[in-house]
Structures are given as structure tokens and as C-alpha cells.
Amino acid sequence: MSRRVAGLDIGSTATKCAVVEGGRLVQAVMLPSMPDMVAAAREALRQAGAEALPVVTTGYGRALHEPRLAQVSEITALAAGVGALRPEAATVVDIGGQDSKVVRVQGGKVLDFAMNDRCAAGTGRFLEVMSRVLNIPQDRFDEVSRPEVDPLPISSTCTVFAESEVVGLLSRREPPDRILKGVLTAVCSRVAALGRQVGVAAPVVATGGPARSMAVIRALSEALGMEVLPILPDPQGVTAFGAALICAQRAGA
Amino acid sequence: MRKLQHNAVLARTIRNQVLWTRLGSRLGLPVAWVTSGSPVELVLAAGFIPFYPENHAAICAAREMSQGLAEHTEGRGYSRDLCSYARVDLGAQWTGRTPLGRLVPPDLVLVSNNICGTVQNWFRLTAEHFRVPMFFLDTPFHDGPPTDGDVAYVREQLVAMAPEISRVGWRRITEDRLRKVTERSREALELWARVLETASRRPAPFTSFDAFVHMAPIVSMRGTRRCVAYYRGLLEELRRRADRGDSAIPEERARVVWDNIAIWPAHKQLKKLFERHRVALVSDTYTSAWTVEHLDPKDPFTGLAKAYTDILLIHGVAHRVEVLTRMIQRFGAQGFVLHSNRSCKRYSLGQYGVRQVVTARTGVPGVVIEADMADPRAVSMEHLEQRLVPFFESLGAGT
Ligand code: SF4
After folding, report:
1. Is the CB of B118 under 6 A from ligand 1?
2. Under CATH, to which class is A89-230 assigned?
3. A61 touches B386 (CB < 8 A)
4. Which of B77, B139, B315, B369 is 20 to 30 A from residue A198's alpha carbon, by CA?
5. Do residue B399 and residue A110 have CB atoms under 8 angstroms apart?
6. Pairing mode of beta strands A55-58, A4-10
7. Contacts (Cβ under 8 Å, ≥6 apart) of B321
8. B193 occurs within a structural domain
9. How confident is the model over B182-209, as a mean pLDDT?
């Protein structure tokens, strides 16, 4: 008999809850984590109707929520989620709020990974800062950064320096669409450099909030020199889904 | 899981060593400040009490004093990018603050660049501060084993240095005295190597976290009888543990090896993190950095010349790959952890490449963690967990 179980991904910016039954996603919820991660976790479970279900937690705040069946790292949960959604994937590129990761996977298991967590360059945080400076909300990236736009090179990789560089470009009245394209190229080349640490093998899939944007996917494909497939419609929920699958396994559901 | 009885013995041994150093210097015995890679046997043969500033800096870090001392040195204009052992120890010299109560001033300093170039400048400042002579042993860097020319070059310096060191000490360095000291060094190193070897048993009765602290006598008391006695006792205890099946980690699920110096500011937390995930750290390149076989009581000068031109940090990265590969196989490790140590460039340079090559050779994965051996401002437990936990999980270990 299969019963329902939950996965809870308490991230630095968003908290995600997935409910799984018989290996299939039946419910997904996403909320902002701030200002109170513990409350956000509880609320996500409530909205998903998962308060009484066994839960495996993951993400930055995974130790904050009790009771739980177990806690696992985001990387392990991410690999489990990708393994179910795209079993053929060999590499996952995850652009998160505070960190980016490149994970080599096989059948839902982690083979190797590289992670950028000490510096905002190459993370969602960088995009967030640039989106503010350029005054282009992230959900409009696709509209502005069209394939035919020619990127302006952004040479600084440091977020603080790149921000000044972008301000400088704007003050020289360079077109924002070309600057944005340059910003995306810069982020993705950082991620690609990370990927070289573990070796990127095809097929490559992308997860994390920014992977929702086709402009980001295109820039990533270019930087890696191979096709990158987004996990749609919810690239941000893959980790919570993976945690729920691990929960099902451990609960014997 | 049972605590090592020798933890108490270690505490006592170190305390006695500190007292002995203080007492000896008050009685007028000469003191030599030496680097971890310098031929301490020479100064021992001349009757000096050796003192290890690197060891001292590590103690400052373990006792949470390192940040203040480093900041003092930085306040004098020294860059934060310099080795934290140097910043911490110089800070202690200049402020007089030390967890040891009081520093015993040197009568000479002895340095070799076989570990890095930093020590050369650090000890020059020390010599200037205390107005004492500095003895310097230049060792050639090599990518393969040291050549006969390398050994002859180093030997010549040792022979030339001996009478000068004798002049500052209270007795002459004779071949006979040197032979005795070398014999004791060799014996202690051999015992230490056997101590480390016990971790190859399953489950491991001892981990590198234990080795990081139990290496103190081999660093700072090498060449003495007390050092030999200490390791004889430790080895006995470990053998008993191994025979009884006492493990260092409850239900050991994975075994990994380590590259680089310990992370002193997070030593305890890291040890717990490994324990919680049932991962045994079975060996490392740091505590096994010496080679025993060279020391030769029959020809002490040549033996010393060989030994001190063949320590880990004087070799290129190809050697590191060799050492790690052998270690992984010998200890049956499923993975390896490379500590990219912000302070020690000599130790950390090339680690990303080393990681790839070692994985290709052994088939086991490695992870790079970024930290610092003594500067808590460059150590983040969160970062360490973020790297290590998924790595442990991928090895089939976890909470
Ligand atoms: S830690 Fe590295 S840089 Fe510092 S003294 Fe030791 S070998 Fe030299």
C-alpha cells in the first residue's frame, strides 16, 4: 500500500514542500523563508496538507524543523529528485539563491559535485542584484534578453565590482538588453568553470529558480558548450520532491 | 566507542614538557626555536631545549587565542594573506600573550626552507626581536626523489653548521652525541608510523583527529627518551583496542583520508561532524609527513641530510598524488578530503588538479573544503558542513 509522505526544502530564500504518493507528486507549495524559517516550514506543511505526514527535511534550515523522519543535504535530495524526473541526466546544474552547484549523478545518486558557496558570483544572488540595478524583474528576463541580442562583456566576476561595472555601462547609455545578456553570460561562465571541476557530461539538466528563464538556459548551454534542458514546470521544487522520495523510501511507503 | 586513555597521558606529557622547558631555561640551558622541518637533532646534540613556534601557534588556535594575536600582527602592517601560524606566533612574541603563560626566549633560531619560504622571514623577525643568531638550512625543491647532489649540498651545510651551533650551546656536537639523538628520533618515528598504521584495522581504533593531537610529542620531543616511551605506550593501547574491536567511531560506515594541516579553530566540531555521520578519518598527509627510513645512526649527517630533503612539502604535486593514492589503497578509504588551507600556499597549491588525478587513479571521489588552520575568521562551520555532508551521504554514510 502506498501512503503519502512529504519532503520539505527549507532554503535560504524560499521554503518548498512536496507531497508524494506512490512515487508521484501530488502537492507542491512554495513560500518565502524569511523572516522566520521555522514558521515558514510549518506553514508550508500546513498548506500542503502534510502536517501529519512523515517528512524528510533538506536545505539550509533542515535542522530547524521538528519532528522529522530524517534530514539530508540538498545535494542528495536534488539528485534523488532529478533521478525520478530525468533518469537519463548525467549532470545537474543548480543555480540557487546563495550558492550554485554542479552535480554529477547516476540513477538518483550523487557521483561527484562542486559547489560555489563562498562568493555570490555565479549564484542567483548575483542575478538578483543585477536585476535591481537594471530595473528588470527576473520574470521579464526572457522578454528582454532575446536570442538575437548581442551581449556586452562584463569582465568583473565579483558581484560588488560587477555592480559598479553595470552602473557604469548604464551611465554611458548602453542598452539594458545588451547589459542583461552580458550579465547572464558572466553568471553562466562562472557556473561553467565550477562544472569543469567535476567534468560536465551530457545530458545536462538545470534546476533552481533562475532555470525557469529560457534566457538563462540559453546562456548556460553556450557557456558549457552543450545543450542544457530545464526541468519544468518547477525547477525550484526538485529538491523538495527528492526529499519526499527519500522519505518514502525510508518510511517504507 | 571508548575514549583513549592516552588523552590524559598526552595532557600530562605536554604539561611536563612546558614545565621542563621553563625550568631548563631558568637553570641556564640554552633554548632553540626551530621549524617543524629543521634538523632538530643538531640542537639536541648540542644540549639545547627545542621550542616549536608552529606548534605554539596551533595551541593558540586550539585555545581560541589566535585571532587576537593575528590581529596584533596585522595591525603592524603584515598582510592577512600571510600564514596564520606566522601571524599568531609573531603576535605572541610582540605582545607576550601566550596560553603557555610565558614564552621562553631563544638563544638561537634554526630554520629550513624545506616546508616553505614563509618561515625564513618569520624566523628572521624572531631572531631580530630576541637579538639572537639565525641558522638557516637551504634545501633544494625537487619533483622526483632527491639526487645525490641535493643530499651532498644539504649535508655540507649541516657539517658546517654543527661547530657554530655548538658554540652557542653548552656542549659540542660530536658524531657520538648525534648518533644517540638520531637513534632516538628514528625509534620514535618508527613507533609513530606504527601508531598511524593501526587505523588500517577495521573498525579503526584511532583516527586522524586523534593523530592531529597525539602528534605533538613527535613534533616537539623527537630525539628524546620521553618521546620514545610515549609512543611505545600509545602503540600498546591502540593494539589492545584493535584486538578488542574498540572503534574510534560508533558503527563506522565509511573511511576517508585527509590532505593538509588540521583546522584547529573547528577541530572539535569537525571531529563530531565525522562521528555523527559515522565516517572514520583513517589517515592524512599531515601527521605522516616524515620519512623514517633515512635516519641512520651509523652516518648521522648523511641520514639527516636525506631525511630533511625528503619531507612532504618539498616535493611537487605528482608526489602528493602518489602519497594520497597509496594511502587510499592502504587504508581502504572510499573517499578523500582536501583541506584547501588559506594560510599554507605550499600545501594547498594544485589541490584541484590533485583531486582529479587521484580520483582517476583510485576511482574514489574527493572533496575540497576551504578553511584555515589557525585563523577563525577564515573558517566557517556552515561551509564545511555544506561540503562534507553531501559528500558523506554519497559515500553511503549519514545521520
Ligand atoms: S603552515 Fe605552511 S606557510 Fe605556514 S609555516 Fe607551515 S609550511 Fe609555512
Report:
1. yes
2. alpha beta
3. no
4. B315
5. no
6. parallel
7. B354, B357, B358, B361
8. no
9. 94
